[in-house]
Fold this protein.
Amino acid sequence: MKFTSDIIIGLEVHISLKTQSKLFCSCKNPSFHGKNIKANENVCNICLGYPGSKPHPNKQAVLFALKLANIIGCQIPKKLCFDRKNYFYPDLVKNFQITQDEFPIGMGGKIQIGLNEFVKLHHIHIEEDPGSMVISNNTCLIDYNRSGTPLIELVTNPVMTKPEQAREFLKKLIIILEYLNIFDRYNCTLKADANISIKETNYTRVEIKNINGFKDIEQALEFEINRQKDCVQNNETIKLETRGWDGTKTFFQRSKEEAADYGYYPENDIPPIKITEEIIKESMIDCNKDDIYYNKINNILEDFDINLEDLEIILEDKNLGEFFNEFLNKNCKYENKFNPQLVANYFRNRIIKILNQMEINFSKLNFNINNLTILIKKYLDKIIDNKINNLLLEKVLSESNFDLIKYIEENDLEQSSDDSFITDLAKKAILDNQIAVDAYKNGDLKSINFLVGVIMKNSRGKANPSTAKQILENILNK
Amino acid sequence: MKIDDNLLNQICKNARLKLTESENNEFKIQLNEIMDMFNLICEVDTNKINPIYHPIDLNYELREDIANENKVEIKKNTIHIQDGFFIGPKIK
Amino acid sequence: MKEVIQEIENINNSFNYLVETIPIDENYDGDFITISIKDAILIKNSQARSSSKILNNYFPVNDSKVIKNTKDYFKNKNIKPIFIGKTIHDEFGFGGYNVNVGIDKKIPKNPYDDKRSCGGSSGGCAGFTAKTKFRHISIAESTGGSISTPASFCGVYGLTPTYGLISRDGLISYANSLDKIGIMAKDILDIAVGLEMIDGYDLNDCTNVKHENKNYVDLLNDDTKYKNNTIKIGLINLDENNQINNNVKDKIDQLKNNLDKSNIKVEIETVDISFINKYSLPVYYILSLSEASTNLSKLCGLRYGVQNIPTNLNYNDYFIKIRSENFSKETKRRIILGTFARMASYRDAYMNKAMRVRKLIIDKYLEIFNNFDFLIGPSTPTIAPLIDEIKNISPYEEMLADTYCCCPNLAGLPHISIPSGKDNNMPTGMMIISNHFTEDKLLWLSNKIK
């Protein structure tokens, strides 16, 4: 096989679905209800694999998988089939995992990671999660609360060529899954195994298992590339092997010869059933093409001139993106009132920044959305400045009964951007502060801030500082 | 098709079984006698026949996604519990 | 009830039919029917070991569906079901003579001759049913003949229903596409009662077919469906001279007489099932052992059953030790063969091929049932062998006990073994097979043989 890149990367990503119950039993799904406090308090005879128990597949998990398969362009098989993947490990209660081997729920498909950039998939399939283990020197402690959680595994083709591309892939994948309402980054899990081969080793493939999250994936891949290059320089051979990642380095786990023969067998407690037109329709019931991340971005770009990176960030949260889109349509289209890029700046630099500080996501907030609309308009109209905006924005987002208008009135927070009012103040400030003026004219541009400060003081905070600065500049630069 | 020492070894490894020497010798003969019976099916023409998984057509209803408070007394079946975790052997 | 309790103790001391007894209220005074349960079927508060040492002290958290159905069935009836114990069988169902019991268990003895085998794998069910003098129904299970063979050897009735009729929830699996829970009893009426009591659609078992329960007891004596048609019977498994054996012949004559008395016409002819006979055994074993080998993977000394913690061994060595020390030889052989048939290099030739030949076998049966209502022949090729002789035969030869029974089992067809007189003072059985989901017909015909 001829490779055209120096680095070849493929990923196998496991994501958990946010169904209410587990994949094969009615125990609560921790990816929906949150992690349990006590170990083994959310288990039953099925997800503990007690002899005699029989699995019963969760309809919602299948619907979520079909929705994803449809949206990313997979070919869906005629039947829903499950297989047993046999291997022995203490976290796997039956010593086989119920997965899909022969007929995965979606063949092919692709994930869009940029305006014109796609990563092609080999396939996606449904499988159950094992339990979780704490490993110590002499023993392991096992908790099966997670055992039986529904997962989708996405296997990419070996088409990525840079570690940062792998990172982008995972980042964009999370957004897509959240847009489809089948995943939630706070309670659900995402883990990746990476396959990497580099030119220097003649493209010998090494697998790195169990990488959590998109920041780690770039680090792990970069580490491994450097490690392999070092080995080649030291005349050490790289063999086909599987390695682990501990957060700082990769380490040997097993060689290819030691790989298990999984002895796949059809899961005969779950006979194959037809995937009907009805169930495919049902899976798409709350979904349409406009709900797709890059489609939404494209739609906005068609009508408004906004920086792509800003859009990608603002639309990461589906609800914030919708609010943004609505705001643009109402306030930037016909009246051409606000500059859409300035609106984007507000969303990215003010709203998202404060959400990150509050460590909360937009969709989880409970607040009056009208308040936010009003606040944004006042900011863009320059009736309030940055400092006042930050104060008010926090209150708007965190206090559900906050009365914005009343608060502004009671505290006399509105400023003026009235040209003549501020021009008078500017002229006075220039007259009274010749040293600062000279400094500015001599190249010390920061001196203007002193003059802005004077204006603010003399206006008792009523002058909008950015307007004041603009007017000062106009006068001084004449 | 015969099962020889190598293959028997490999199968036992996969199945997490260790045979004693006498079991090994005994089994090789017994298993190969059974293999002769297995090999009979090679002569059947199954061209254009699809494999079946069950003897009759089956169709089940997928389970509605409703979560229950399932409580299992794990202590009923094991004493090897520490802080609610199952205790298992070392991994390395 | 004191008599019942005493009888159970006496029988068990001599014959080893029960691995576990269930406490009985000795003060109960009303009508009752005692019920024994094959050990592989779960009932709460009783160990379920599938007759294996590795599952010692495994206590199920739920009743199996058939037990739930049975408890419900008797709720508004005047008769009380008394569960008396779990019966011994070949470990995990692996055997046709019930000599492959778990390494710490005793082989059950044939009720007619304690030096002979009970037949397997449900030997304990058949033996106890034959020996008890009280009204008794045994809930048994068949994968490749495990109801017919012991029923035949012990002189009782044994019904194996259609695959998918009775829920498998709570049955410790041998082979998921072959296991069927069924009934043993001393007469046809109790077979019908037994079938009614375990029947009941189970939403939670994906292999259970949605259906309404039939009134098998009422249908036993209902001739209406058959009055205007001719019943067509095909004879199978004839002897070397192409004759039906004498025991079967006697029963067929009885049947003909009774049908005649009821004015029902019958046609009898021999049927060629040589293809089915030749390939059923290898297909059955390849598929059942493949399934069994994965079903048994979960038995590794963690969470339930035999456990040996703390241990200095790493997890793989620990699993190897527990499994190698607690499985019987037959279990190990079967796991080895089943694991082999699934391995990447061999699965096409064995696992996959067997699944295709199975389709051909079933198609042949369905073709036959286009022209016949029932197939009749002997249940087993021989009478119950001496236990000592079985020790001298190879595992392959032991598998041959299933020669006749594995065929309908592979095809999931309902079949019943009916006592058909003695041969050398030992019971013989006659097997009747009918098409899928025609248990009512099967029982009706069996009721006409008296």
Observations:
- The mean pLDDT of chain A is 93.
- The first helix of chain A runs from residue 30 to 33.
